[in-house]
TrEMBL record:
Keywords: NAD, Oxidoreductase
Active site positions, chain numbering: 182
Similarity comment: Belongs to the HIBADH-related family.
NCBIfam families registered for this protein in UniProt: tartro_sem_red (TIGR01505)
Record's protein name: 2-hydroxy-3-oxopropionate reductase
Molecular-function annotations in GO: 2-hydroxy-3-oxopropionate reductase activity; NAD binding; NADP binding
């Protein structure tokens, strides 16, 4: 390796990545493509093999992954998993070095993010909550929307990393603010998918050319990123996740609870939260959230 290559890598922070799922794997790979040294840990060996094949380094534990990292990034399913990897003798806070920056990109409760930032501060570790929107496709294409909570100085330091992962990157306020905005995002997405699903069943029962109808709808005021991203799911009944109903169920719980805490009414959101929950109890929790179409079909007397 040339001295120039050495110096370019030396100027970039060493990154530890914890959680290599549907989102975490392509996101970590985009950082490798951008020239970052990424050491990763996750529970599945095949995901670690994927990371090493992409040019990253696999670690045998959280402690090993974070020990020499300047920046630790986490991307796990929910608050309990964030707490499990952050706290305790084998967790991030006990093993990352003082002065490190912890960026949690999971979608969790705002309070969990606030508590994590407070606990990390005692260890000299700075924290940003930075949940994302855009799904698997957005992760792969590095066009995610990233909503961030935390200190301006920490955001400024992390911004080049965020820019390798997403297209819209915004500091939304203090710790927990990113999670609050993500909760609002998930509310809008769920209601939007539900509206699209109802329109699809209505159009099909009316005998309209569905593909043509969705194309023209998406060109007008009814158009949306949701419809653009999920149109083929509806047309092909392809419900491979994507973003699982199980996770959207978790997120609707977050937004419902957070809204209750601040005194905001979510009448439509509450109905859609129940529809997401019912889809899950019918065994569809592992499907993409566009499978809300299946719930509408059941209600409309269609065989699913």
């Amino acid at each position: 390796m040339s001295n120039l290559a050495d110096s370019s890598h030396a100027s970039r922070p060493a990154i530890a990545w914890i959680g290599l799922g549907i989102m975490g794997s392509p996101m970590s790979e985009n950082l490798i493509k951008a020239g970052y040294d990424v050491t990763g840990f996750t529970l599945e060996q095949d995901k670690l093999d994927r990371l090493t094949a992409a040019g990253g380094t696999a670690a045998g534990s959280i402690a090993e992954a974070v020990r020499d990292a300047d920046v630790v990034i986490t991307m796990v399913p929910a608050s309990p998993q964030v707490e499990a990897i952050a706290y305790g003798p084998d967790g991030i806070l006990e093993n990352a070095r003082s002065g490190a920056l912890l960026i949690d990109m999971s979608s969790i409760t705002p309070q969990t993010s606030v508590d994590l930032a407070e606990a990390a501060k005692a260890k000299g570790i700075r924290v940003l909550d930075a949940p994302v929107s855009g799904g698997e496709a957005g992760a792969v294409e590095a066009v995610l929307s990233i909503m961030v909570g935390g200190e301006q100085a920490d955001f400024d330091q992390a911004e080049p990393i965020f820019e390798a992962l997403g297209k819209t990157v915004v500091l939304c306020g203090p710790h927990g603010s990113g999670q609050t905005v993500k909760a609002a995002n998930q509310l809008i997405v769920a209601v939007n998918i539900q509206a699209c699903a109802e329109a699809v069943v209505f159009l099909e029962k009316s005998g309209v050319d569905l593909a043509a109808a969705l194309d023209v709808l998406n060109g007008g005021l009814a158009g949306s990123t949701v419809l653009t991203r999920k149109k083929d799911n509806f047309l092909n009944r392809d419900f491979k996740p994507g973003f699982r109903i199980d996770l959207h169920h978790k997120d609707m719980g977050i937004v419902t609870d957070a809204a209750r805490n601040v005194g905001a009414a979510l009448p439509v959101g509450a109905v859609v939260a129940q529809l997401v929950a019912s889809l899950r109890t019918q065994g569809d929790g592992g499907l993409d959230h566009s499978a809300l179409l299946r719930a509408v079909e059941r209600l409309s007397g269609e065989r699913v």
